Structures are given as structure tokens and as C-alpha cells.
TrEMBL record:
Family (UniProt): Belongs to the peptidase M16 family.
One of the protein's GO biological processes: proteolysis
Keyword Zinc attached: yes
InterPro entries: Metalloenz_LuxS/M16 (IPR011249), Pept_M16_N (IPR011765), Peptidase_M16 (IPR050626), Peptidase_M16_C (IPR007863)
Residues covered by the Peptidase M16 N-terminal domain: 82-218
Protein name: Peptidase M16
Alphabetized UniProt keyword annotations: Hydrolase, Metalloprotease, Protease, Signal, Zinc
Domain Peptidase M16 C-terminal: 232-419, 722-893
Superkingdom in the source lineage: Bacteria
Residues spanning the signal sequence: 1-27
Length: 976
């Protein structure tokens, strides 16, 4: 029984989109699902639930075609107008023979290349015409056990739905699989393989080979091998396709804004004629984990491996492995999983407490997982501190040994039960706003792990009815089962030669361990409650409460300078979002204090508030839905949380108290410094890592506040310096509070009066926050060259054109999104589809609304070192052609139609609107710009795009950056 997840929307994604005109917004906010269609014939004996006593989710409707194809459909109106289609083939890389390694993934690519209804190389354009964006709305994924084709169709009218089912059915049932298709797709797959190489891939390969020794999983990565892929022929690929791409091995999952009977009719129309010859091949054996002969059955230590990777943090993982067997997914089985979850949560909380207290390891965790239908495994992960990895392993094992020797206290169990209860409550409260794409993905996941799905209210009911099982004795029994198995295997990744050996790792695991009960503290701590926390100050009423003129959003102003925007939306039941923007962001930090920016992102929240340390913050929110995300932006800092109506007042207290009653516990800073130093070297392991580390630094004219701090700078940071920098940041600059979702306005205003209204008057932000001059790189056609320590066939190339910033130019920034999509389409076609030198080149635009400058258009790709010049030449040619010639109306429509559909879907999200309104309490012009979003993102002309390209994309405006492998000759270019 897969558990219905919390409704979640990606703010970062939504900020790239745009909503409908304001007058149409209310019609787009999701309402309760329309009544389900009459029971469909397949519902009388739903294939997913055969043999199970899990209650059928009544929203899903099931059926089987005469050819054996199974399907499941349901109505869902989130976002409005969208239908999510998933076609799942029950075959992944574990279904390949030795000579077919990589074929399942190669087929995924080739099905998009050409098929019955899609001419060669036109799939991207075909789906763009339907409003679907390639890569996000249209995608596919191949794993070890399945291949899934995905499409989220916006504006799913009958005609577009019919066309989409037609195109997707043709891909799966009648792909071309020609020699020219293979020739076109092979370089793309090899480019994808190259991008995935490097240290992380070596660790992944070593883990697979060690932990699953003797099983196909040890050598069956979906990407395959160069040898098998380059040896592929149209005939050999078609043989794999014919063996597994059959109607009786496929399921079609559809969830969206349409009647289930209608969705069922499209499945029948386009898949009923699919025929297969002969019987379905039996799935190959995935094998079982087996202990080597002669090991102690009471402590069956098997393969151990030490891998030296100088640029990766030390990391130790061992796994207790058991054979995987398909289970009957019934209530009793799921009750056992719930006890397993509690047992793991108890141990993980103890491990986290021990790490917070300081010691031999930075972090550690345990996690049970059924891996690729190959093993039932309990994983123990440890990040040691320093060179004494044996001490870290010993300390972690000692905590686990204690959990296996004595039952936990009822207080510990009750705490984890309270956390799980909230996790299961939230989907019940928010089931009206669960997105259809996530529901479809959950169904696919259930099929892959051979389990069912259940409605959120049934999951919660079963959990609450099972609480009698959550006793110390039961949890102890399940803990002992979790850490017992057929064989234990381990991998240790270390930075230094000679610090460990395979045999030393094995010896360490064989050592007897004395249980460590020192961390068992639950029930002995001093009670904490919000009622006993100090008041922030005297409550103050708002001096003004005014409508913004936009929907039902109101603005409150307090005498201390705090301003708040409130938007109660009953159509989003059970969910409230709180955002607090304050201070001056990175620009308010003095350049010499730049390392404290990264340390603050790690440690500021954990350093506590009022009388609460980090452990207290965890305990006081037990059984509550509260959060404390922290983000450093260009010109502001931000706290954010998703909470519930009943927890809102206390959530506001936490945020306000962090501003006015900060605490400065030193241990979170110590831990943050250790983590930052360990992390730094990992950036050098790949071109993408180097870009993550350095690109923003170069884009911002080498401003140290946008650099990733080096270990030596981190080491110099002190607790006194941390407090000095962040106490100033917390206490200065404007404060803007946003609250939107399901809340009572009157009681929320009262809570604001006691929290943010009670703050001391704010001091102005430091003057550096108001600097209008933002450094940008000087134009140059000589690339900055950075080096990575990864594979010699890996490189990255970046070309960037500075643009602008500020809310005054918001329309231009939105138009630039159209231009970058035009550029991306051309770049994909040129360097991926035609040249095959890069897997996923892309172009993006940044426009900092809170700063007067600092924006850019950036094109990048990961490729082999010899192809960087080709990338730069191609990007220059595309840019110059956009300057010289306007795009055709047809080409422009392939961009604006998907963007129009993205805009429409975003209109159903309150979070998007409030994201657009960030800063509007101090810059009211932003309210007006919300009204023009649809127009700004979609209304343009070829000539306007040409003019925009001429303004920004000239060759003399750009600068370049290369990330090359260490030791690679770079000729005449300057190495930085």
C-alpha cells in the first residue's frame, strides 16, 4: 500500500511560469473533484487489489483489454485542464541479457525518435504544438525494473487528448527502430553516459558491485556499456522490444481533468488493436543475496570494499541484506511496515542527537528499502569526522546495538507515532489539492514495487487502528528483524590511500560492540511548550489594513515597520504557507564576511531562538506541521514554512522570535563548518560540480559574496563572528510577512499582533544593500578556464550575456523567457539532435527583480573537451541568426503555446501569485505587474524577438567559461 504523499508544489518551478489574467484566477483555483463517473466494468474486480484486503481507492477505476493491457484512470482537477498520462512497460535493465546492456534505456530514446504517427525527429515539436514542454511535461525514465513514458497534457480538450493518445500509442506499439534512428540516438545516449561519469559514478558502480555481488543488479545500470551500445543493431534492439513491449506487459495510467469513462475510451480506442505473438517471456531471475561460504551465520559479513576518491567526502555504508519476495499487500503487511518505520525513526533520532552533540561522525542514518526487487535491505550510512573512521563506525553500531538489546521507551515511540500521524493527516486534509501528475506517478510506483494504493483517509484510519501494535516490545522485535539478514556487505569511500583496507573494514564490522545507551533521553528532557516561551514584546495592532486591489489580498502595516500580506483561500484546505522576507540579503553582508553566508544557510536556524535549542525546536513541533526553511537571496533573507491552520500562530512565533530573540548555540556552527569543508572538495569531481561552485561568482563579477567559501576561509570563521554578522542581519532592514492558504483572518491578525507586531522597530539595512552598481563580467571571446578532477572525457562550456534587473523592466524579463526558449530549441536541435555532442544543453534567463542589474542569459552544455569550440561556434551562430533574422511565426508558436499552457496551470496556484508579490509591500508597482503576466509571457512578435536578441545577444556582449579536465592543454586561452 503506497501512502498518499503530501500535496507539494515547487515554488522554484512556479517562479519560472506565469498565471492567467487576474480576473480569471478565481475560476482556476482547484475546487473539490467533480463526482466520479459511474462505476466502470473493471471496478467490480480491480486487478490491482486481487488477493489484498486493502480498501480500494474509489477515485481510481481499473480495467483490462482483451490483449492483456491493464489500465487505471481517475478524475483530478489539479491543475485544472491537465491530464497526466503514464505508459509503464514492466521491463528495465534487469530484463536485459549480457549483450543487451543499455537496450531498455536506448529504446526509451528511440521511441521518441520515430514511430507510426511521428515522423523522424519531430516528436518535440509535435508535443509542443499540443502545449507540452519537452523535458518537463514530456519525458521518460528507465530504471532497473521498468520503463515509463510520461506526458502531462495541458488544456486537455477532446481533440488534443485524442491526438496525444494517438501519438503515445504509436510510440509504444509501433516504433520505427531503423538504422538511421539508431545512428541518431546512439551519440545522445553516449553523451548522457559521459555526463554521468566521474567520481560519483565510480562510487555508484562500486556500491552496486559490492552490495549486490553475485546478482544481476551488480552489473545492470540502465545506462549500459559502451561495448554493448556500440554493438547494437536494429535487429538486436527490435528483439528486446518484441520480447517486452507487449500489451500484456504494459499498463496505462491516466489522471486528470476529465471523466474517467472518457479517459477509458481513449485507452480502448488506441491500444485495443495492439497484438502480441506467443506467450509473454518469464521475467529473468534477479537472484538472492548469498553469504560467502564459511562466514559466521550470527554475524555474516560478506564482501567489503574500500574505494579511494580524494575529492569525495569520506562515506561509509553497510547493508544488511535479505532475499526480496513479493508479498501480499494487505493490512497486516502494512501494519508491519508502520512498526518498521517507527523503529527506524527512533534510531535515526538518536543518531542525529549524538551527531549534534559532537563526536566521531557528522551524520548517520538507517533506512530499510526493497531494492529493485532484488534485495530487502537495511542500509546504515555514516559520514565520519576526521581520520578515525573506525570510531565513527563503532559509535554508530553502538547506538544500533542498544536499540537491538533493549526496547525503546513508550515516550520515544509516542513521539514518532505523533509525527507519523501528522504525515498521514495532511494528505487527508489536502486531498482536494493533490496534483494529478503525482497521483499518476504514485500508481506507477505501486505497480513497480508490486503493491496497491490507498486513499489518504484509509491510510490514516489503518494507521490509527494499528496504534495498539506500537509497543516497546513490538518495536524491539522489528528492530532486531531489520538488523538481521543473510549477509552484511560494506563500502567505504575515503580520501586517503592507506587509511583503510578491505580487510580492515571487514574486521571493524566483525568486532563485538558494547551497546551505547547514553543517547536515550526521550521522556527525561525538560518539558517545552509554546505557552512557557517568553513573549516577543507587547502586542501592537496594525496601524493600517488596506486592500491591495488584487483578488482578496490585504496588506497590514505595523508601527514598527513590519508589513504583511494576507490571502485566505478556502479552496486550499488544510494548507497555509508563511514567508518572511527581511534584511538586505547577500548584498548587505560585508564582502570580508562572505563565508558566514554559507554557514548561516547551514546553521542559523539550528542555533536556536528564545529558550529553544535545536533539540527543543524538534520536540516542540512534535505532532505539528511546522517548518523552518531559510534562504539567502540577492537582496533579502527569507524564512518559509508550510503549516496548517491550527499550527499557524505558533509558526508565526517561531519566525518572529528568531528575528527578535535569537539564540547562539555554538554546536550547529561547528557542525556547519565541518560539513562545508567536507563538501568543498566534491565540487571538483565533475564539470557540473565546478559550475555549481563557481559560475555565480563569475557571473557576479567575482563578488566574494557569491563565491563558495574555501575550507581555509571556513576554518577562520568563529562563533563570535557568526553572531556579529547574523545578529545584524536578523535585526536590520524591512520585514515583509506573507500568509496565504486556509486560515481564519481574524485570529491570524491577532497572532500577528502578538508576534511580528511586537517586534522592536527595525533599523535600516546596511548601506551595502542599496548598492546600485552590480558587477558583471567584461565581454570577452577568450574563455575563463576552470579545471575539474573528473573523467578526462568530460567538459562543460558556458556562454553568458549580461542583461539587467529591477522591477521596472519586468515585462522585458518575461519576454526574455520567450527568447531563451527559442534559443534552447535551436541549441537542442543543433548540438544534441544533429551533432550528438551534448545530452542536455539548455539556455536560461536570470533577472534579479530586487537589484538594478545583475541579470543574464546563459547557455551551457556538458560535452567532451574537444567539442567546446563547436558549442561556442554553434551558440554564436544561433545568437547571430536571431539578431539577423526574426524567427518564423510557426517557430515562435512552438514556444508561446507551451508557455501559455504553463501559465494557465500556474494560475491554479496561490504560491505563484504570492511569489510575484514578494517585495510588493515596499514596491507597490509589483502588484500592477501581476495583471500583465499572461500578456508579457505569451504576446510577442517575431520582430520583437529579433529586437530583443539584438539588444542583448551580440557577440561583443558575451563572455565565456570552460570547465576542462585537469591536465588538459588549453592552448592560448587564459587559465584562471
Amino acid at each position: 500500500m503506497t501512502k498518499s504523499p503530501r500535496a507539494a508544489r515547487s515554488l522554484a518551478c512556479l517562479l519560472l511560469l506565469a498565471p492567467l489574467p487576474v480576473q480569471s484566477v478565481l475560476a482556476q483555483v482547484p475546487n473539490a473533484p467533480a463526482p466520479a463517473a459511474e462505476t466502470l466494468p473493471g471496478d467490480r474486480d480491480p486487478w490491482l487489489y486481487r488477493g489484498s484486503d486493502i480498501p480500494r481507492d474509489p477515485e481510481w477505476h481499473f480495467g483490462e483489454l482483451s490483449n492483456g493491457l491493464k489500465y487505471a484512470v481517475r478524475r483530478n482537477g489539479v491543475p485544472p485542464g491537465q491530464v497526466s498520462i503514464r505508459i509503464r512497460v514492466d521491463a528495465g535493465s534487469l530484463y536485459e541479457t549480457d549483450s543487451e546492456r543499455g537496450y531498455a534505456h536506448l529504446l526509451e530514446h528511440m521511441l521518441f525518435r520515430q514511430s507510426k504517427y511521428i515522423p523522424e525527429g519531430t516528436a518535440i515539436a509535435a508535443f509542443q504544438r499540443l502545449g507540452a514542454t519537452f523535458g518537463s511535461d514530456t519525458n521518460a525514465v528507465t530504471s532497473t525494473t521498468q520503463t515509463v513514458f510520461k506526458l502531462d497534457l495541458p488544456n486537455a480538450a477532446p481533440a488534443s487528448l485524442d491526438e496525444t493518445f494517438k501519438l503515445m500509442s504509436g510510440m509504444v506499439t509501433a516504433p520505427t527502430l531503423s538504422a538511421s534512428n539508431l545512428k541518431s540516438d546512439l551519440p545522445i545516449v553516449l553523451a548522457e553516459m559521459r555526463e554521468r561519469g566521474g567520481a560519483a559514478k565510480r562510487v555508484q558502480d562500486a556500491m552496486q558491485k559490492t552490495l549486490y555481488a553475485g546478482q544481476p543488479l551488480s552489473v545492470r545500470e540502465p545506462i549500459g556499456t559502451v561495448e554493448t551500445l556500440t554493438s547494437a543493431t536494429p535487429g538486436s534492439v527490435r528483439a528486446f522490444y518484441s520480447r517486452w513491449y507487449r500489451p500484456d506487459n504494459v499498463a496505462v495510467i491516466v489522471a486528470g481533468d476529465a471523466d474517467p469513462a472518457t479517459l477509458e475510451s481513449y485507452v480502448k480506442k488506441w491500444f485495443s488493436d495492439w497484438k502480441a505473438s506467443g506467450k509473454l517471456s518469464a521475467a529473468p531471475s534477479f537472484g538472492d543475496p548469498v553469504a560467502p561460504q564459511g562466514v559466521d551465520p550470527k554475524n555474516p559479513i560478506g564482501e567489503t570494499k574500500v574505494l579511494v576518491e580524494p575529492d569525495l567526502p569520506p562515506s561509509l555504508m553497510y547493508a544488511i541484506l535479505r532475499p526480496w519476495r513479493q508479498v501480499i499487500d494487505n493490512v497486516a503487511y502494512n501494519q508491519g511496515l508502520m512498526v518498521d518505520s517507527i523503529a527506524q525513526a527512533v534510531i535515526n533520532r538518536r543518531l542525529e542527537s549524538k551527531a549534534r552533540a559532537g563526536g566521531s561522525f557528522l551524520s548517520a542514518s538507517v533506512n530499510q528499502d526493497d531494492v529493485s526487487r532484488s534485495a530487502d535491505a537495511t542500509f546504515v550510512s555514516v559520514t565520519p569526522l576526521g581520520d578515525d573512521w573506525q570510531a565513527a563506525l563503532r559509535d554508530v553500531r553502538a547506538v544500533i546495538a542498544d536499540a537491538m538489546s533493549k526496547p525503546p521507551s513508550q515516550a520515544e515511540i509516542d513521539r514518532e507515532v505523533a509525527e507519523l500521524d501528522v504525515a498521514f493527516q495532511v494528505p487527508v486534509e489536502q486531498q482536494r489539492i493533490l496534483p494529478g501528475s503525482k497521483l499518476a506517478d504514485d500508481m506507477v510506483n505501486a505497480l513497480d514495487i508490486r503493491e496497491t494504493v490507498a486513499a489518504p483517509n484509509d491510510v490514516l484510519r489503518i494507521f490509527r487502528e494499528s496504534k495498539r501494535l506500537f509497543t516497546p516490545a513490538d518495536v524491539l522485535k522489528h528492530t532486531q528483524q531489520l538488523f538481521s539478514g543473510t549477509v552484511t556487505r560494506a563500502l567505504f569511500t575515503t580520501q586517503k590511500q592507506g587509511g583503510a583496507t578491505d580487510e580492515a573494514l571487514r574486521t571493524a564490522l566483525l568486532q563485538p560492540i558494547k551497546p551505547d545507551a547514553s543517547i536515550r533521553t526521550a521522556g527525561n528532557e525538560k518539558p517545552v511548550s509554546f505557552e512557557k516561551l517568553p513573549a516577543i514584546g507587547a502586542p501592537h495592532k496594525a496601524t493600517a489594513q488596506t486592500p491591495t486591489g488584487l483578488l482578496d489580498i490585504e496588506q497590514l502595516t505595523f508601527a514598527n515597520g513590519v508589513k504583511a500580506m494576507l490571502w485566505p483561500v478556502q479552496e486550499e484546505p488544510g494548507r497555509v504557507t508563511v514567508k518572511v522576507r527581511f534584511g538586505g540579503g547577500k548584498r548587505s553582508i560585508e564582502p570580508q564576511d562572505a563565508p558566514y553566508i554559507a554557514l548561516g544557510e547551514f546553521a542559523l536556524v539550528g542555533s536556536g531562538l528564545a529558550t529553544l535549542g535545536q533539540e527543543d525546536l524538534d520536540r516542540i513541533s512534535t505532532g505539528r506541521k511546522m517548518g523552518f526553511d531559510f534562504e539567502v537571496q540577492d537582496a533579502s533573507f527569507q524564512f518559509q514554512a508550510e503549516t496548517r491552520p491550527q499550527d499557524l500562530a505558533d509558526q508565526l512565533y517561531l519566525f518572529a522570535a528568531k528575528l527578535d530573540l535569537p539564540r547562539w548555540d555554538p554546536q550547529p556552527l561547528v557542525r556547519a563548518k565541518a560539513a562545508a569543508k567536507i563538501q568543498y572538495a566534491t565540487y571538483s569531481t565533475s564539470p557540473q560540480g565546478v559550475l555549481n561552485r563557481d559560475l555565480e561568482f563569475y557571473q557576479r563579477g567575482k563578488d566574494p559574496r557569491f563565491a563558495t567559501p574555501k575550507p581555509e576561509a571556513i576554518e577562520k570563521a568563529t562563533a563570535a563572528g557568526f553572531k556579529k554578522v547574523w545578529s545584524k542581519a536578523l535585526s536590520s532592514g524591512p520585514v515583509e510577512v506573507q500568509i496565504y492558504g486556509d486560515f481564519d483572518k481574524a485570529s491570524t491578525i491577532t497572532a500577528l499582533e502578538k508576534t511580528f507586531g511586537a517586534l522592536k522597530a527595525r533599523t535600516p539595512a546596511p548601506s551595502t544593500a542599496n548598492v546600485a552598481e552590480v558587477a558583471v563580467p567584461k565581454p570577452s571571446d577568450v574563455p575563463v578556464v576552470l579545471k575539474h578532477h573528473g573523467d578526462p572525457d568530460q567538459a562543460a562550456a558556458v556562454i553568458s550575456w549580461p542583461t539587467g534587473g529591477g522591477s521596472v523592466g519586468i515585462r522585458e524579463s518575461r519576454q526574455l523567457e520567450i527568447l531563451t526558449q527559442l534559443f534552447t530549441n535551436r541549441l537542442l536541435d543543433a548540438v544534441r539532435e544533429k551533432l550528438g555532442v551534448a545530452y542536455a544543453p539548455y539556455v536560461y534567463s536570470q533577472w534579479p527583480v530586487d537589484l538594478a542589474a545583475g541579470g543574464s542569459i546563459t547557455a551551457m552544455a556538458q560535452l567532451d573537451p574537444k567539442s567546446t569550440a563547436v558549442f561556442f561556434q554553434t551558440a554564436d551562430e544561433i545568437a547571430q541568426d536571431l539578431i539577423n533574422n526574426p524567427p518564423t511565426a510557426q517557430e515562435l508558436a512552438l514556444v508561446t503555446e507551451p508557455m501559455r499552457q504553463q501559465v494557465t496551470r500556474a494560475a491554479s496556484s496561490t504560491s505563484f501569485f504570492m511569489g510575484q508579490l514578494e517585495g510588493a509591500t515596499y514596491d507597490p508597482s509589483r502588484i500592477g505587474t501581476v495583471r500583465t503576466i499572461l500578456y508579457d509571457y505569451t504576446a510577442t512578435t517575431p520582430q520583437q524577438m529579433q529586437a530583443l536578441a539584438a539588444r542583448y545577444l551580440g557577440k561583443n556582449n558575451s563572455w565565456r567559461l570552460e570547465v576542462m579536465p585537469e591536465g588538459k592543454a588549453v592552448g592560448a586561452v587564459a587559465v584562471k
